[in-house]
Amino acid sequence: MKKIRTPQELDSLRNSLLQQRDPNKPCVRVCLGTGCRAHGSADVMTFFKDEIERQGLEIQVDCKQTGCHGFCERGPVIVIGPKEIFYQKVKPSDVPDIVSKTLLNGEVVDRLLYTDPTGQKALYEHEVPFYKKQTRLVLANNGKIDPTNILDYIAIGGYQALAKAITAMSCEEIIDTIEKSGLRGLGGGGFPTGRKWRSCKEARGNVKFVIGNGDEGDPGAFSDRSLMEANPHSILEGMIIGACAIGANQGYLYVRAEYPLALKHLQTAIDQAREYGFLGNNIFNSGFDFDLKINRGGGAFVCGESSALMASIEGKMGEPRAKYIHTVERGLWNQPTNLNNVKTWANVPLIINNGIDWYVKMGTEKSKGTGIFSLVGKVNNTGLVEIQMGTPLKTIVYDIGGGITKGKRFKAVQTGGPSGGCIPEELLDLTVDFEKLTEAGSMMGSGGMIVMDEDTCMVDVARYFLDFLQNESCGKCVPCREGIKRMLEIVTRITKGQAGEEDLELLQDLARMVKDFSLCGLGQTVPNTVLSTLRYFGDEYDAHIRDRKCPAGVCRDLITYVILEDKCTGCGACFKLCPQQAIQGKPKELHLIDPAKCMRCGICRDACPFEAIIVG
Amino acid sequence: MVNLIIDGVKVQAEEDSTILEVAKFYGIDIPTLCYHEQLTPYGACRLCMVEVEDGRRTRLVASCLYPVREGIRVKTHSERVMKGRKLILELLLAKCPNSKILQDLASKVGLEQIRFKMENEDCILCGLCVRMCAEQMGSGAIGFVGRGQKREVVTPFRMASEICRNCGACMYICPVVDLQCRGVKSPGELCNSCLVITPQCLGKYDQVMCTLESCGACIEKERK
Amino acid sequence: MAGTVSEYNKVDEIIKGHSHEKSALIMILQEIENLYGYLPTWALKHVSEKLNVPMIQVYGVASFYDAFHLTPRGKHLIRVCLGTACYLRGSPRVLEAVEKELGIKDGETTPDRTFSLQSVHCVGACALAPVVVVGERYFDKMMPTKVRSVLKAGAG
User: Fold this and answer.
1) CATH code for the domain defined by A458-545
2) Amino acid A287: pLDDT
3) Closest residue on chain C to A40 (Cα)
4) Which tens digit of pLDDT belongs to each residue from A102-115?
5) What's the pTM value of the predicted model, to 2 decimals?
6) Do B148 and A475 touch (CB under 8 A)?
7) What radius of gyration, in Å, describes the C-alpha atoms of chain A?
């Protein structure tokens, strides 16, 4: 394989690829992202390959694997080109129909189309309500290219930005472009990316590093996973451009070990980029050398914090350090290091290709461009969402998310992962950007958006996050290690109805101290969930403390289960499954739960076919 | 040399020195636990936190690690700082109630009750022993192991170490194990025999005015 | 207890595969864990020696990260996701059901070393919540009533 040494060579390769590829040729693109795989899309892919071979259609029809399309709720997802017909929940048994009807004759298989709650069907991907209101730029190619084939990436214009930046722009021009675009870090703090690059460039030192943070530890967030699986080259290209501007010759991609597919695709991408000369020595004949290595995380949420991540790359425990001297000045092995989230890196080629004006037009005054969110929880359409900054929360939850499941009432959206906070109904008109989320007591973080309904207890949510963070705290500093422990004790007692008013005061004192005194971002943001739930759902705390009641019906010590007389048919389903043998009753007669034995585990409630068991 | 203001006093410091070093030089007392002059600063106990205003914003920093910068204004005993220090000591004492050094520090900041469930540990994970063993004794026989609640100081595999020379430096430097407080009469009680409580001047000024080893005379008079 | 000569060689191969780089410690340990299902003491000592990294640092790293275990694990690893999306959809009850079915608690291994149970926080498949992973197989929309059949299917 001859390396690409000039922009002209890249252009001619791209043109020859486009000439070889017939845009009108029927092509079935099967999503093999982790979400769809879990639903069996690998089998669907095998069935397609077999069926196409069986019918001797290899020349007329293409079959391609892609990464995550983002609409994981409806997986396995496939798209049939050239019309971009969107099929969801595809089973292997559907394959013969799809091949003979859609691929060969352009006919639609109705039952596989997305249908919204009103019964309206969508034919093309862009008609599906989930995708309609999105502005997919970074994720645009996720469902279109085969992530294991660099030629797909080149065919859609990949590595053009790198060619332009490295041959036609100075380092100053590149940094200036990123600065003026207003791009901000999409991994957590939202720090202006251009400013970070500039500080790193100006830092003293001959050996510099760049790092791509793919350690997505927020439970409920999978945007990094999706991007790394589906379009790894976009991240690589961004990192090479950044490294060139900053003057770094070595880069690291830090990816959590829990994402095996992402790791695999990134390694393949790196190998292929090296083959084609985009990584290695004398890239595009510029004299600039740069290479990338992948470091796997060992399983520690705290390693998403930049100084802990760097300690981990150095082969140590993931303990953060004080950042009074920033990592851009002294980072990996005490050398200047620029760390950005993988989503941030993927924005770079887009900005270089399309220019500052294009990017700046999108978003709000201080938050430009798009944001990528994992919309999960009690929404009908769970999946990955990319929207312009400044989109109202309401649009995301209702228009894109399709509203709350089972027709329940919206209660809150938790954003920013364990470091974030909960946003209540009265703030649904909030336009999503860095500032507005922080003002509301939450933060953008890594883009997790967890929708909660009326059946969620907000005190239990605070308890959940405290428990998570207690387990993930590195334990180095006193406020975080001891503070979380005691906050968790108090909140747990509140969920058990064993707390008093003075506990609330102590909880708030602790929260404020942990926020002020902790060593790193993990500890400093621990209190956010507690403080935001106290701020907006104080009445729930009061109910637990004063009335010893859990209004949402969740906290086991404060609820009882009751079988409704008018709904119970005496079928005995609950009786058979109760692990405590707490249910008594004769067949076809009303059954009763013995509150003394009942553990409120909820198994009976799930099992009852008549919804006769409720929280009393 | 760098010019800065600590507690209203104009001081000069060498570049690259920390706020704590400068404060010590000028006799301004900032409490510490995990700090030792002859070991690299660790910044884990957070007792030495001070308020720093650098022209753009005010924030809390660990004085044992924060390098001095031109023109910063430092407050070592502001209300925010005092409140936090008190709570940190309360947390530590809930864990290790028998340490004399912790009991003394508690008295100094006016801690009078512990509102948490008491335990009876003898390690506050300050890391002095680890750094002592590695840096002064050149051994590195012990170290931190585990994460969060499971963090502890042990030898590899919790077995007798081949590189430990039984020098005892780790015990010598430990602020918790060595001196036991004799004033505690029942578990969970705070000794408070040498009590110096939160000075009254905090109500009038935005930080304590006699930070050079507060004598507590103003309070003793109040109590009597 | 020391490893056999061929086992030491296997570990040497792994270290060589990472060019003896100290910064590859975590990945080297991961590969050893993949081989043995846990990190044997002799292997940790050998890595410390070969990589020239202090034993206490190797031990510290082995104790810090979730990927590592210092005691042998079961043949089949069951991971119950307690990530936020799964939690809200009732995964703690699924965990309880698995604990009951196997007779062990979260983080433990069955006495016959068939199963190890580990709660995890987010496997990145939040749309399929609640999720249980047995080995490499993902089971979605889990409920306590499905536990027995999933364990059977996962164990093969």
Assistant:
1) 1.20.1440.230
2) 95
3) C138
4) 888 888 999 999 98
5) 0.91
6) yes
7) 26
